[in-house]
Design brief:
Layout (H helix, E strand, L loop, with lengths): L6 H29 L3 H28 L9 H14 L6 H32 L3 H78 L1
Helix pairs in contact: 1-2, 1-3, 1-4, 2-5, 3-4, 4-5
Length: 209
């Protein structure tokens, strides 16, 4: 592993990490969009895919400003988030709204990771007085924040509400059966208690004799 002995090298390393993360997303986002059933959610994902491609272009401009070759460094953080998202989204769900809710959660984990990564890179670019790069990265950061806000709006206004309604309907269907089971258990318990009292009373009478 190469050593990093200056802020400039650290900054370049961070950009390579983000570059790899964005490249991974160009492959991951279409998969999420394909599995989304809500039209607004699918459109939001497809729109952010275009933004991601633009963010890759800005990173390439940043590398050019620094006189560095545009290449990525394997981003373990994004790799793990995407793998976890694939696992959750790939599970069996009784309703499409539940899967959409999971897709939003997975996408927002991605956005929060990127917001943190861009925020750190911007702070370091300012320290290095790389004003042109600061402007490029801030454009991408604002897009990430807007994408996160849009996903929240879709979740709060449509998807999560519909998913909750489906869960309530499922509970209502199983409710009467559970109620009958509870009533049956109560009757059984009451009968056992009655038998126990009768047996106790007989035992006391036998001792008196």
């Amino acid at each position: 592993m190469a050593s990093i002995d200056s802020m400039n090298e650290l900054f370049v390393d961070e950009l390579r990490d983000i570059y790899d993360a964005e490249k991974r997303l160009t492959k991951a986002i279409p998969k999420l969009a394909k599995k989304a059933s809500n039209d607004d959610l699918r459109s939001a994902l497809e729109e952010h895919l275009q933004e991601t491609e633009g963010q890759i272009s800005r990173l390439e401009q940043a590398f050019e400003h620094l006189g560095e070759r545009a290449k990525g460094k394997p981003c373990a953080g994004m790799k793990g988030i995407l793998e976890e998202g694939d696992e959750h989204v790939g599970e069996d769900y009784e309703d499409d709204d539940l899967r959409d809710a999971v897709i939003i959660g997975s996408a927002q984990r991605v956005e929060h990771y990127e917001i943190a990564a861009y925020g750190t890179a911007i702070a370091h670019a300012r320290l290095l007085q790389q004003d042109d790069i600061v402007q490029l990265l801030e454009e991408s950061l604002e897009e990430e924040k807007a994408a996160d806000a849009k996903l929240s709006q879709i979740a709060e206004s449509v998807v999560n509400i519909e998913a909750a309604d489906q869960s309530e309907e499922s509970e209502e269907k199983t409710g009467p059966a559970r109620s009958r089971q509870a009533t049956s258990r109560q009757r059984s318990t009451a009968a056992s208690s009655s038998k126990a009292r009768v047996s106790s009373s007989r035992a006391k009478s036998a001792r008196r004799r």
